[in-house]
Specification:
With about 200 residues, the protein is α+β, with helices and mostly antiparallel strands. The chain has one domain: Four Helix Bundle (Hemerythrin (Met), subunit A) (Up-down Bundle), CATH 1.20.120.910. Helix content is about 45%, strand content about 10%. It contains four helices and four strands; from the N terminus they run ββββαααα.
Length: about 200
């Protein structure tokens, strides 16, 4: 993956600190073909995301590190380097977790498929398997949305509403980092969908 930086005037976004589900500390290393080097993500208790990212500049290699417990704030320029790094790492960690769970699900289905000789047990297994496969399909679509969000970070369009071009609140992005619409635009979209269904 390559990271593009967009130069331009900073835009102040309106948001607030969000909360992420508590989790045990884990480390996720992204597959890094980026010349900037590998990124290591650490998610601590309370959902805090920290990272150590190597980058190469004109003066040689230097390290950029988010402070422990860092959360994007509306007191800093919207989608500055820290915020882009924070959301990129959050998305990478989320994708890796989905892939891990999918791998475990497939392994479990493979092991269970050889253990049900009884017809009733087999039927129950097939029903459970169908549900698992539908869940996997939803997760596959979610991974595609995560990849699209990472691509937007790289091209500099991440965090801006696709409908209005205005910044999406940091609170919304922290809760749903794949969001492409602001809350107001999302509500308008949902109202239009309801009217369409009623017609």
């Amino acid at each position: 993956m390559t990271t593009k930086r967009r130069a331009g005037d900073a835009v102040d976004g309106k948001g607030s600190r969000g909360r992420s589900p508590a989790s045990e500390p884990v480390r996720v290393k992204a597959d890094a073909t980026d010349p900037a080097g590998p990124i290591t993500v650490k998610i601590g208790r309370g959902g805090d995301v920290s990272t150590a990212m190597k980058k190469t500049g004109e003066g040689g290699a230097s390290a950029v590190q988010l402070p422990n417990g860092y959360r994007p704030s509306d007191s800093e320029p919207f989608m500055n380097e820290r915020q882009r790094t924070y959301f990129r790492n959050k998305l990478i960690a989320w994708k890796e977790e989905i892939i891990r769970l999918n791998r475990e699900t497939l392994q479990g289905l493979h092991e269970d498929s050889a253990q049900h000789a009884d017809v009733a047990d087999r039927a129950t297994f097939e029903t459970d398997r169908a549900l698992e496969l539908r869940a996997r399909d939803r997760q596959r679509k979610l991974i595609a949305k995560i990849d699209a969000a990472i691509a937007r970070i790289e091209d500099g369009s991440y965090g801006y509403c696709e409908e209005t071009g205005e910044p999406i609140s940091l609170k919304r992005l922290d809760a749903r980092p794949i969001a492409t619409l602001s809350i107001e635009a999302q509500e308008r979209h949902e109202r239009r969908e309801r009217v369409f269904r009623e017609e």
